[in-house]
Amino acid sequence: MSDKLMTIRQMCDAFDVTPRTLRFYEARELISPERRGQHRLYDRRDRARLKLILQGKRFGFSLEEIRQLLELYDPRDNNVTQLAATLDAARIRLADMIRQQDELGQAIKDLTQQIDETERLLNARKAG
To answer: Is this prediction's pTM over 0.70?
Structure first.
């Protein structure tokens, strides 16, 4: 996308979000579109931030965690601080996701066994 400004409708179409979602992120000060009367106009920075917000949400980060990482943006240090903090947060989140995956795998195994046992019991009672 270019440096041109986008309307709320264009942002919704480009990122598959609702106007309500964009207004919510604006209210949480995660994005800050230019206001011209009643119109919101989104620039390249807003688009980049929205992309990061949506990606962060997909990975399970809270909006507060995302906001804190976005606030670290500083091109004067080549974003070293932001990148390092993002990497640390991503590693922690990945470890948590792997733990959750292991727990879910065990729960699936246990439930499958419970279903098998219940089917055997039901079949035995029907036959008996």
So the answer is: yes
